[in-house]
Amino acid sequence: MERVILIKYGELTTKKGNRNFFIQVLEQRIQEALQDVSFHIQKDLSRMLLFVKDADLEKAIEKLSCVFGIHAFTVATIVASQKDAILEEVYQLVKEESFKTFKVEVKRSDKKFPISSMEFARDLGAHLLKNLKEKKVDVHHPDLFISVEIREKQTFIYTHSYAGLGGYPVGVQGVGLLMLSGGIDSPVAGYLAQKRGIKLEAVYFEALPHTSIEAREKVISLARILAKYQNEIKLHVVPFTKIQEEIYKKGKKEYTITIMRRMMYRIMEALCKKQHAKCFINGESIGQVASQTLSSMEVINQVTSLPVIRPVACLDKLEIMEIARKIGTYETSILPYEDCCTVFVPKHPIINPTKEACMEIEDALDFEKILEEVIQNTFVIKVNSQKEKEFENLL
Fold first, then answer.
1. Are 62 and 132 in contact (CB under 8 A)?
2. What is the largest CA-CA distance in the chain?
């Protein structure tokens, strides 16, 4: 008896002419995820077969649950495509299972097999009813679902399926930079961007001494959670203190956050060009705070020509929190360490800023020189899903 992990592509099968590319990237992501597992892969345009030693099976299942691009996967038993061999193997597989009702589904891709799918499903059902007393067939709500896929040389039999993450393999859309704060929203935005095939690098705006080293560690922890979906994330730490203090001293208080966000967007565009990223991503949700009204977004967006992706823009806070709990970022996000956005929030931030007022304030700042200095002093922390593999280096 040989077992194999059978991987189903789902959305990738809609890609038609580009399907080979998507499957190739998925294979690369699987190889990265299973780098400490001994395995080999066989693939075609509809399925991928992952041959893993039984000792590594549980580890492989756990790792595959974090790979985008997989619709579902199952552990299947392989037998020869012969009637008696299939009947006996199905019986051996299910006789130790705990169930009262069952359903058999047969898919016959090998049309040379002498029995039709529906007829062989009936034969299998009759064989189990004869040999397993007190079991019944239930085609609508069975306790146990038995799948049999008959191919030319071999047949796959499985009873349990694992849900995959779906989406596209990370990397098929290129690189995007995530504005990663310590809050609830931005890690969720990063996760959803990864699901659409964007490989993340993260950017953290740091305002020492107004923010703490603990706040940076919090962001590193969030990046580490996101890194398990792509193995490693570069975290760009931007020393934002000087520009924030200039804005606070020389600008209008109600415009502090608006101007600060415009400066952040300018830095994000520069870093995107430097890292060959195609977009940047943030956790803005329409109307959630003053800088996230449509009027504010319009004025802030005017300083960049790059696409700004806002995956949680149309989700409410409860929906975002639900995803944060699901992916494991929520408990870290609510730790009480302030980020640079919360430290300088004015009492009454403007919700309908104008471009003219922003430009008047920015004309009073020597911001281009400061921004150049900030970008030059930005450094990188390479964050791995396994903490002991992380290290720092200069950008």
1. no
2. 87
Query: What domains sit in the chain, N to C, each tagged with a CATH number?
Result: 2-163 (3.30.2130.30), 175-394 (3.40.50.620)
Which residue, 384, 334, 286, is CA-closest to 187?
334
Identity at 245, one-letter amino acid code: E
Q: What is the pLDDT of residue 336?
A: 85
What are the CA-CA distances from residue 172 to residues 8, 46, 164, 198, 336 (Å)?
Answer: 18, 18, 18, 7, 36
Give the DSSP H/E element, type plus range, for residue 161: strand 161-163
**Which of 340, 331, 346 has the alpha carbon at shortest distance from 253?**
346
The whole-angstrom separation of Cα 181 and Cα 329 is: 12
176-189 mean pLDDT:
96
β-bridge partners, 229: none
Q: What is the pTM of this model?
A: 0.91
Query: Does the structure show a pLDDT above 60 at 395?
Result: no
Q: What is the sign, positive or negative, of the torsion defined by CA atoms of 236, 271, 225, 244?
A: positive
